[in-house]
């Protein structure tokens, strides 16, 4: 039986691993260096119904990459390239599926792994890491899988076991279209909630109505131009965005959580991607939010004035 190797044992990677495991699939975790030499307890997954599921997974490190049969990448976008570079022995025939949010990595991953079948997954499940090896499944949504290169097209059959484990999962020949649909939601919700330190649902308060409207228009123009004939109508996009805001009203966006906890955000792959592809379209609100988040990220990395340097 093929083993699914999860690179990135964080919130989403653990939830997907848990769901695959529950369906009898074999799952292993390719771990970062900080786990080396540590005891690996069973993964404790809190399911949507609140029950605990204990999962016995196989810990792996880059020297085991020769044996990887199918790699699912669940690191943050800014860690994808470095994490893949560590897997020097990854067979050229192993399919690699990128599940990160945001866009802009495809060409670099193609250059790094020119022979491997490459795919992208667009996953709308929700996951939260409560601590190492304790992860909560917070929401169910549809998943799309599609090819990023020619060799990736031969792996459409992976949809079947993924659908059995994750629920609604479909193959999309034009996976970039589905990535942009998700980006269009993230490029509004993530920077606005992060900059204002609010929950997703607070975006619907009257004080944000003007900025929400302006940002929605900017993002729509850029994404619709990239989508060409496949663009959704502005009304359909607005409805979809408001549906996500309402369905996740009590949640905090990933960017809000990252910024509030002093972690790096995925802004370069979300708003940064939008700005790079604006190509003359006016995007002042996106630019302002992008600049603000980069400024806060930079200030987090600088030691506070008067703080002692570590020897
Ligand atoms: N959480 C969610 O609900 C959703 C998340 N996404 C997207 O999925 C991606 C992952 O998100 P999420 O799970 O929340 O993020 P997390 O930060 O919880 O998980 C990322 C994991 O990647 C691991 N990692 C980083 N570098 C390496 C490396 N070199 N080798 C092995 N592992 C590495 C980290 O491991 P360690 O901590 O051990 O260093 C960390 O556990 C993001 O792009 C996110 O936007 C998409 C949909 C929903
Ligand atoms: C849709 C949204 C904003 C839900 O929180 C998300 O995907 C994120 O937080 O990154």
TrEMBL record:
Keyword annotations: NADP, Oxidoreductase, Pantothenate biosynthesis
Domain Ketopantoate reductase N-terminal positions: 4-149
EC number: 1.1.1.169
InterPro entries assigned to the protein according to its UniProt record, in alphabetical order: 6-PGluconate_DH-like_C_sf, 6PGD_dom2, ApbA, Ketopantoate_reductase, KPA_reductase, KPR_N, NAD(P)-bd_dom_sf
SUPFAM superfamilies in the record: 6-phosphogluconate dehydrogenase C-terminal domain-like, NAD(P)-binding Rossmann-fold domains
Transmembrane regions: none
Domain of life: Bacteria
Pfam families the UniProt entry points to: ApbA, ApbA_C
Reaction(s) this enzyme catalyzes, per UniProt: (R)-pantoate + NADP(+) = 2-dehydropantoate + NADPH + H(+)
Entries under NCBIfam families matching the protein: apbA_panE
Protein family per UniProt: Belongs to the ketopantoate reductase family.
Function recorded in the entry: Catalyzes the NADPH-dependent reduction of ketopantoate into pantoic acid.
Protein name, entry field: 2-dehydropantoate 2-reductase
Source species: Oceanisphaera ostreae
């Amino acid at each position: 039986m093929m083993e699914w190797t999860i690179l990135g044992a964080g919130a989403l990677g653990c939830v997907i691993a848990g769901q695959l495991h529950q369906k009898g699939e074999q799952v292993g975790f390719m771990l970062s260096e900080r786990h080396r030499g540590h005891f690996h307890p069973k993964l404790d997954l809190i399911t949507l119904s609140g029950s605990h599921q204990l999962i016995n997974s196989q810990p792996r490190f880059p020297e085991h990459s020769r044996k990887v049969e199918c790699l699912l990448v669940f690191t943050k976008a800014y860690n994808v390239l470095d994490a893949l570079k560590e897997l020097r022995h990854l067979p050229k025939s192993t399919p690699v599926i990128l599940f990160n949010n945001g866009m802009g990595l495809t060409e670099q991953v193609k250059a790094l792994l020119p022979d491997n079948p490459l795919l992208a997954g667009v996953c709308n499940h929700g996951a939260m890491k409560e601590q190492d090896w304790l992860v909560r499944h917070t929401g169910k949504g549809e998943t799309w899988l599609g090819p990023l290169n020619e060799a990736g097209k031969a792996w459409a059959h992976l949809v079947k076991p993924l659908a059995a484990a994750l629920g609604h999962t479909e193959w999309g020949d034009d996976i970039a279209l589905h990535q942009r649909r998700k980006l269009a939601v993230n490029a509004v919700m993530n920077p606005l909630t992060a900059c204002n330190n609010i929950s997703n649902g607070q975006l619907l308060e009257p004080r944000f109505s003007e900025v929400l409207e302006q940002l929605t228009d900017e993002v729509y123009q850029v994404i619709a131009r990239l989508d060409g004939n496949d663009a959704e109508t502005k009304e359909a996009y607005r409805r979809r965005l408001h549906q996500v805001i309402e369905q996740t009203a009590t949640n905090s966006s990933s960017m809000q959580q990252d910024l509030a906890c002093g972690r790096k955000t995925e802004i370069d792959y979300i708003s940064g991607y939008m700005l790079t592809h604006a190509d003359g379209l006016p995007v002042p609100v996106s630019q302002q939010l992008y600049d603000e988040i980069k400024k806060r990220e930079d200030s987090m990395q600088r030691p506070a004035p008067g703080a002692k340097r570590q020897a």
